[in-house]
Amino acid sequence: MRIFDPHIHMTSRTTDDYEAMYAAGVRAVVEPSFWLGQPRTSPASFRDYFDSLLGWEPFRAAQYGIAHHCTIALNPKEANDPRCTPVLDDLPRYLVKDRVVAVGEIGYDSMTPAEDTALATQLQLAADHGLPALVHTPHRDKLAGLRRTLDAVRESALPADRVLVDHLNETTVAEAKDSGAWLGFSVYPDTKMDEARMAVLLREYGLDRVLVNSAADWGRSDPLKTRRVGDLMLSEGFSDDDVDRVLWRNPVAFYGLSGRLSLDVAPPGTTHQGNSVLRGGE
Ligand SMILES: [Zn+2]
After folding, report:
1. pTM, 2 dp
2. Hey, which of 85, 153, 168, 197 has its CA 20 to 30 A from 226?
3. CA distance linking residue 54 with residue 12, whole number of Å
4. Are 246 and 202 in contact (CB under 8 A)?
5. For residue 109, how far is its CA from the centre of ligand 1 (angstroms)?
6. 271 - beta bridge partners?
7. What pLDDT was estimated at residue 280?
8. DSSP secondary structure letter of residue 119
């Protein structure tokens, strides 16, 4: 089983996770830039993080045979912090980088006017840079959040078929599908979707434009959830080809819209800017 996790925050994960992911079949990941739990206090803090998503993290992933790309944005939560919003002016110089395959994650957290502005600005940046967009939908008040998200996309210059609407569930999937957007589902240990509910939705809504991710981060989450969905699909009668479509070909097709996806893992160098993943020697 070959697996592309289209939404995972590897910065928060260990080398054990990379090893286990490779053993489970993961060969490619996209790491969206997001909120780190601890509030940032300046745009400089974002720039160091973006540089890490473009430098250190792909280097680390390559040590374990995994192709790493990222998406760059001001995340919805920190869009409300005036100390952070000036980073919007820095985004254009990141959005031209080779391994940036979308603008994201953008979208709504609490649905504030500041979030409206950041979302509209960044949808326009995606259109201007020929990139698709990864749009997070809120975890509270999901259907209202989805509707407001789809309205923002309709009002933007970015066509819905270049937008991946993420963190969908039973309450939001139908309207998201009708919009023409790509459909993202995050499978977590306790909350949001689980494997069994995911299989039900795949049966009901089909496999077209559907992506499944672990969204693993610094919270309780599981970087092998993609594999667990694949295994459950097979045990419930989906074919190998169905699994390959959801876990590999759909994410390749979506992020391929950037024209920048490069799935060959370069033979890893042993150091990145003089630093290795080893401790205490080579
Ligand atoms: Zn995320």
Report:
1. 0.95
2. 153
3. 15
4. yes
5. 12
6. none
7. 58
8. H
Closest residue by Cα to residue 230 from 219, 222, 241: 241
- CA 189 – ligand 1 centroid, Å: 15
The yes-or-no verdict on residue 195 having pLDDT over 90 is: yes
Q: Please report how many Cα atoms fall inside a 13 Å half-sphere around the Cα of residue 252, on the Cβ side.
A: 15
Query: pLDDT tens across 157-193, in order?
Result: 999 999 999 999 999 999 999 999 999 999 988 767 8
Q: How far is the CA of 106 from the centre of ligand 1 (A)?
A: 10
- Cα of 31 from ligand 1 centre, angstroms: 8
For residue 134, how far is its CA from the centre of ligand 1 (angstroms)?
10
Distance 32 CA to ligand 1 centre (A): 6
Give the Å distance between the CA of 9 and the centre of ligand 1. Answer: 7
Q: Contact at 8 Å (CB) between 213 and 9?
A: no
Contact 74, 115 (CB under 8 A): no
**Domains in the chain, CATH or no CATH each:** 3-256 (3.20.20.140)
Encode pLDDT of 139-161 as tens digits. 888 999 999 999 999 999 999 99
DSSP state of 252: H
CA of 280 to the centre of ligand 1 (A): 33
CA atoms within 13 Å, Cβ hemisphere of 263: 17
Q: Which helix (H) or strand (E) holds 133?
A: strand 133-136
Report residue 135 as tokens.
């749009």
